[in-house]
User: What shape does this take?
Amino acid sequence: EAPQRAVTTPAGTVPGTEQDLRLNVGDRVFFDYDQSTLKPEARGQIQRWAAWMTQYPHIRTTIEGHCDPRGTREYNLALGERRALAAKQYLVDLGIDSGRLATISYGEERPAVRGTSEAAYAKNRRDDFTPISR
Assistant: This one.
């Protein structure tokens, strides 16, 4: 019997992988300054995550909360946690089992973009969605 080949999406990625998520679904949402409330665009993105997770029930994920560098380290770790928990709760509300979802806050420790401009800060106020196959 011939070995099975991995099916690829039009973008050339294997469905259900982190690369598939990043390229075909999107892997982050953004927040306003000093906020953990999900904006409408973030809700739309999280709805796409929920659909993707429903399609791939073997996937678990970690939601990583991040902040810009303004505020104390402790404050930013707490804000990052609130951001990650907001996304997790919305996924649960959309029917994703909470056992498939973990959260972690990195505060300001892992910036997506270096710099002190408002544009850089805006890119760092985010949740990253990192899938893990079981």
Observations:
- The chain is about 40% helix and 20% strand.
